[in-house]
């Protein structure tokens, strides 16, 4: 087995002097600068989605340059469904804070719908996210109401504008999400119209999850001047990093798919034992030595 990469080092609380708040501010500023630079350099980059501190440490050690939280992965890890009702803001931010503290990388968060319909709700969520050490986060235009799944255009833009205004007060990159394709509204023209309005309202990154093919992705990227995020790992066609970069994509996330891949491995191992009475799954399992190499030593 190849030697595992070294575990990520943890930032020292004395990096910016003796005051904890000064050290926190310095670390957050450095992570924000690194995150912004990733969006400004040529080419695309992959920003995978850990669901807890352990998965964050593994992805850090494997060489990724930024991380994003996943509401779905977190929900599954605590035995809940991925819904706004099941995951209040306090829980989402506590999970995000644990991931921030587990890595020296920039971390962006899935901030759902901003945890409220009003523009002020979105602004408050951005402020609290920045105070948790996050240097980015996304606000979506979905309502959580199946009867009216997408916010009206004007309200959606106002929400992004309020979030963007708050984001400018912090070292924080705001991603605005147009959710049409996830809610049975595959209207590319309206999706582009929304993303263009979100860009004009101050969003730093634009994101329309669920685009079905490279032609759609290319059309979205061509219609915008700021970086575009695309998610891979969902159902449907998949594309390579090179293909997405050629289409104009800057950032690639994986949503909850890494978490689901881990759950799939668990279910396959359990079914093998339950249905066949065998344990061959252990041959594919990460060794305890490798797993431990990624984790932090206990403080004494």
Task: Describe the 3D structure.
With 300 residues, this protein is α/β, with parallel strands linked by helices. The protein has a single domain, classed as Phosphoenolpyruvate-binding domains (TIM Barrel). It is 45% helix and 10% strand. The chain has eleven helices and eight strands. The protein has helices at 20-40, 53-61, 71-77, 89-101, 119-131, 153-167, 188-200, 214-223, 241-247, 257-276, 288-294, and strands at residues 45-47, 67-68, 107-110, 136-140, 173-177, 205-207, 228-231, 251-253. Strand 3, helix 5 (119-131) and strand 4 (136-140) form a beta-alpha-beta unit. Helix 2 packs parallel to helix 4, helix 3 (71-77) packs parallel to helix 10 and helix 7 runs parallel beside helix 8. The chain starts with 19 loop residues before the first helix and ends in a 6-residue tail after the last helix. Mean pLDDT is 94; it is low at 10-17.
């Amino acid at each position: 087995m190849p030697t595992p990469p070294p575990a990520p080092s943890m930032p020292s609380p004395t990096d910016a002097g003796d005051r904890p708040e000064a050290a926190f501010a310095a670390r957050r500023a450095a992570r924000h600068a690194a995150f912004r630079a990733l969006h400004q350099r040529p080419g695309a980059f992959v920003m995978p989605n850990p669901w807890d501190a352990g998965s964050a440490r593994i992805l850090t050690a494997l060489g990724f340059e930024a991380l994003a939280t996943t509401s779905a992965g977190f929900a599954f890890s605590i035995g809940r469904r991925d819904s706004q009702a099941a995951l209040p803001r306090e829980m989402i931010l506590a999970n995000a804070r644990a991931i921030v503290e587990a890595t020296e990388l920039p971390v962006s968060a899935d901030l759902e719908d901003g945890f409220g319909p009003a523009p002020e709700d979105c602004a408050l969520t951005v402020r609290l996210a920045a105070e948790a050490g996050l240097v980015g986060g996304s606000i979506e235009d979905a309502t959580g109401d199946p009867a009216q799944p997408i916010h009206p255009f004007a309200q959606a833009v106002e929400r992004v504008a309020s979030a963007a205004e708050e984001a400018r007060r912090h070292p924080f990159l705001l991603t605005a999400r147009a959710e049409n394709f996830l809610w049975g509204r595959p209207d590319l023209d309206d999706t582009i119209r929304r993303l263009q309005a979100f860009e004009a309202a101050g969003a730093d990154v634009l994101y329309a999850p669920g685009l079905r093919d490279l032609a759609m992705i290319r059309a979205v990227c061509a219609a915008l001047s700021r970086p575009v995020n695309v998610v891979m790992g969902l159902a449907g066609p998949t594309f390579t990093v090179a293909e997405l970069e050629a289409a104009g994509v800057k950032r690639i996330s994986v949503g909850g798919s890494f978490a689901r891949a881990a759950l799939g491995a668990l279910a396959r191992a359990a079914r093998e034992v339950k249905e066949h009475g065998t344990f061959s799954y252990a041959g594919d399992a990460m060794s305890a030595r490798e797993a431990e190499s990624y984790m932090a030593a206990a403080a004494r």
